[in-house]
Q: What sequence folds into this?
């Protein structure tokens, strides 16, 4: 999968993809992330990419030309399955959306800043608008990093244990059950006996029941959607 990220602050994306699972995904050739500095594509002086809003009001808006120039260039090089704009007024990102995106080939993610991007780019280029939660970030970069991480780890071969993404919270509409590791007795706090029983059937039933309990307690809406 190839993901092209358009940003005015590429430095914000230096770190998230260069460690741990995202790094491994790229080293294995399963994920190819490219960040593009929008300022390199503006026809305006002093690398200007934003301007005042028509109609007045506080806050600058990202101008259409630099975005269109870069989008045209990328779209002439290959076809994209989605042009995503990350924005607080987009559809809420969830595991189902991550699963869907993980099946795509090439994606573009546009990160907004200031008051956002000119509406005409949303109308004529963007195919999907995503919010990662009901709060406002200073820019779309962290949202893009969240999406790339959530999607990238689902690509076949990225996780060592292929089954581990399947047992994540949300994959079956439930939260994941509690997990324990050594020692079996830590400060007198004991691991549930069933996990030490060596009986995989019993463990499976216990985990399922704990998942149901946890979901009912913490996120009842997930079960009744
Ligand atoms: N940009 C600013 N806030 C955002 C959010 N909550 N989700 C996605 N992009 C954003």
A:
């Amino acid at each position: 999968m190839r993901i092209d990220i358009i940003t005015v602050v590429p430095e914000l994306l230096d770190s998230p993809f260069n460690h741990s699972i995202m790094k491994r995904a790229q080293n294995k050739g399963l994920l190819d992330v490219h960040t593009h500095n929008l300022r390199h594509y503006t026809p305006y002086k002093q690398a200007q990419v934003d301007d005042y809003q028509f109609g007045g009001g506080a806050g600058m808006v990202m101008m259409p030309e630099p975005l269109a120039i870069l989008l045209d260039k990328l779209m002439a090089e290959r076809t994209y399955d989605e042009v995503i704009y990350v924005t607080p007024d987009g559809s809420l990102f969830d595991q189902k959306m991550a699963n869907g995106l993980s099946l795509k080939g090439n994606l573009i993610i546009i990160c907004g800043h200031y008051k956002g991007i000119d509406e005409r780019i949303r109308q004529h280029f963007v195919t999907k608008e995503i919010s990662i939660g009901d709060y406002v970030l200073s820019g779309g970069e962290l949202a893009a990093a969240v999406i790339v991480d959530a999607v990238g780890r689902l690509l076949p071969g990225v996780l060592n244990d292929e089954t581990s993404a399947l047992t994540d919270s949300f994959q079956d509409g439930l939260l994941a059950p509690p997990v324990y590791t050594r020692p079996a007795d830590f400060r007198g706090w004991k691991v549930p006996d069933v996990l030490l029983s060596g009986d995989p059937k019993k463990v499976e039933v216990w985990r399922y029941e704990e998942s149901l309990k946890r979901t009912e307690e913490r996120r009842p809406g997930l079960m009744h959607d």
